[in-house]
């Protein structure tokens, strides 16, 4: 539990010589606790993270305060999702018990960190509730009081901004979100919401700037990726737009609108380069390849091409073909092709196909993956990944 003094006291009460390894453990945790506290005072969050991990590894593996300090350090280092994960994995102790073990100040700190993480992830109501609990426990803690003011201001700004956005008052909503950011400049949710307003107002460059700021805090924040992709598309920055759309597709592979936007950006990029686009299609059916030229043209088209090398006499091919048809509809921005090896012996040989079913993945004419006789799950996972 990280209660060093209590641990020492109970060793003495036991009335016998303590085990040497136990005392080494107590001392190790104590050193980590001291270092963690000192590092937090000076804002050395990398050291706080290291010392918190050290204390947990040394034996304080059920100490909420070390999980809280680890979470706070990750939050300060802009690793928000990891910070939330640490709190989710931390031992859960009911409030009354927590206060009895760790005191008012210790319990207030736990709530303080939870409120900060909640606010960073847009859980404004929860952030306010936890900050209020912390303030009731520790009335004269200036850090808690300041966080409570910030949480309330951010929650109010987000609520106001959301209502204005819903009413199509984008300029006013943008201002409201900005007021919230005055209190919490690194709030990824507010930055992303303001980007949506700026996008609606045609302020594409500013929308990209807000998304960049949000993604510097939460690199995998798919809403920010999507809004940046949309804004870059409006600015005709097709390569940047495609990169973000592909990242979003990995997060929400079944989203048809995102798939369509990705396809449109890929077509626009090809058009801007003066390349042929008349043969490009969005979704539909598996394309049956009947010539080497058709194959080369298909795998060099924008985006991902998945080629199923099959044989009519193969039972495995017959079993997986309906699933490939399903994937074709589920992932319309992916170009699915089928090559019959008997009908295209030269092509199968040139692609080093030795057995069926074989699936090869291509981007821009280059093979990026090959899987032989995959399960349905393995095949779909690969499509999602690329």
From TrEMBL:
Record domain Thioredoxin: where: 289-384
GO BP annotations listed: response to stress
Database matches in CDD domains: TRX_family (cd02947)
InterPro entries in the cross-refs: Thioredoxin-like_sf (IPR036249), Thioredoxin_domain (IPR013766), TPR-like_helical_dom_sf (IPR011990), TPR_rpt (IPR019734), TTL1-4 (IPR044534)
UniProt key word Repeat: yes
Keywords in alphabetical order: Repeat, TPR repeat
GO cellular component: cytoplasm
SUPFAM superfamilies found in the cross-reference section: Thioredoxin-like, TPR-like
Keyword Metal-binding annotated: no
Protein name: Thioredoxin domain-containing protein
Domain of life of the organism encoding this protein: Eukaryota
Native source organism of the sequence: Taxus chinensis (Chinese yew)
